[in-house]
Amino acid sequence: MLLVIADYNDLSGHPVVGASWEGFVIENLLAAAPDDSKASFYRTAAGAEIDLVLEFPKHGLRAIEIKRGLTARPGRGFHIACDDLKPSRRFVVNGGQDRYPLGPEREAISVRGLATELATL
Hints:
The protein has 121 residues and is of the alpha/beta class. It has four helices and six strands, in the order H-H-E-E-E-H-E-E-E-H. The protein has helices at residues 8-13, 17-32, 76-85, 111-119; strands spanning 38-43, 49-56, 60-66, 89-94, 100-103, 106-110. It has a six-stranded mixed sheet with strand order 1-2-3-4-6-5. It is globular.
């Protein structure tokens, strides 16, 4: 058994689940994004971080924070990083299906929802 993960409950409590979810989300969003998009991440020595930054020639930057929970909110580092980069859109991709605002200039969205939106750019 890989990583001694026998079932969903074992996976949910395993330290690798967050990084695995993040990789899954990034792969799916990059597959849906237009070919002319540029992907990167942003991290400062002070701890400001954005999990995925997508740049589109005609649509500007998208800042994407990835959280596995259903009601995940971005941390302070995400807000500081967004102040640095000034993206045109800010998303928190979570494990749910709903799309809703998280405050000014930020919204929660599902992986599928954001992938669909990126595919239409």
